[in-house]
Amino acid sequence: MVKLSVIVPFYNVQQYAPDTLKSLRANARADFEFILVDDCSRDETPGILARAERELPGAVYVRHEKNGGLATARNTGIDAARGEYLTFLDGDDWLAPGHYEQLLASIEDLGCDFVRTDHVQCTARARTIHRVPQGRRGVVMNPRDAILPADRSTSVDYAYAWAGIYHRRLVDRGLLHFTHGLRTAEDRPWIWKLHREAESFATVGLLGVFYRRGVASSLTQIGDVRQLDFIRAFDQVVAETAEDRDAEKLLPKAVRTYCAIISHHLGSIERFEPAVARKLKSMSAVALRRMPQDVLDDALDSMDIQRATRLRRLRRRPAATGVAA
Predict the structure, then answer these.
(1) DSSP sequence for 210-265
(2) Cys bridge to 146: 35, 39, 155, 320, which one at CB 3.0-4.6 A?
(3) pLDDT in tens, 85-122
(4) Does residue 149 have a cis peptide bond before it, meaning omega lies within 30 degrees of 0?
């Protein structure tokens, strides 16, 4: 029986894939499988993964004939997974030796639906520890209780899918798949759904995932139209939260976070291609008008002057025809 399935999407990461695969080898165990999903790479990544299928214990190689984005690649891996537990890794990141054995032991000891972990962010030679914004460690909690407060960073703001491990019952309940086709912010509706609908979770202080920032091919570094998928992602967060039994309590957090992300993108709008920058403004203005206006008013009142002013100005922007998320 497969105990743990590790889902690893790759896309044009020939420079980094060997390090990722080396770290998987240092985490291999007879009852672990590594599902390597190539999302139709155009560089040497497919050849690297084909060799890994032969040489890495537990490797399963799956190749997309058409690029579908990170969410779709992860879903392919989930559908192929046979493990009692699942976790994720991105194809340009890497692991400490033995990390998955410790991670698996933590969720088995705690007996909860999912466990979240800290991670190390790597930018060039700099290393920074990033912790789950949840003070209680090693204690099983109700995930809904970790969504609030609205005006502070909480577990739903720490959306990294690879920073944790998940029991298969979440797949069976339809909670672990990502929204098909989202090319950025795919983890936002996903983490909100987990926290609203799963029954139990915990946070542990393991530091075994090394998250590589500043990769030239990463969408966080590219100012093209794919970045605008964050609007579709947060529209989903707000719409699903509005249907929740605790919508009155949870919507202020969802709306405030959406506003903060819009403001963040507007604050660095120079990194976008000119046509995309114009579309960002138009789509964001429409998105603000879609939000529950009373909740939006309260969210803007709670934000600092710079961000609130930027968003209020955008909110007054005349509606453009033919603009949709």
Answers:
(1) EEEE--TTSGGG--SGGGGHHHHHHHHHHHHHHTSTTHHHHHHHHHHHHHHHHHHH
(2) 155
(3) 999 999 999 999 999 999 999 999 999 999 999 999 99
(4) yes
When comparing pLDDT for 225 and 220, which is higher?
A: 225
SS3 category, 60: strand
Count of beta carbons in the 10 Å neighbourhood of residue 243: 8
In single-letter form, the type of residue at position 282 comes to S
Judge whether 127 and 185 are in contact, CB under 8 Å: no
Report the C-alpha gap between 80 and 63 in whole angstroms. 12
Q: Give CA–CA dist 23/37, Å, rounded.
A: 17
pLDDT tens-digit readout, 26-64:
999 999 999 999 999 999 999 999 999 999 999 999 999
Q: Are 89 and 16 in contact (CB under 8 A)?
A: no
Name 263's Cβ contacts closer than 8 Å, sequence gap at least 6: 303, 307, 310, 311
Give 216's Cβ-side CA count (13 Å radius).
5
Give the list of residues 6+ apart from residue 78 with CB closer than 8 angstroms, or none: 7, 86, 171, 176, 177
Tell how many helices (H) and how many strands (E) occur in the chain. 11, 11
Element (H, E) at 46: helix 45-55
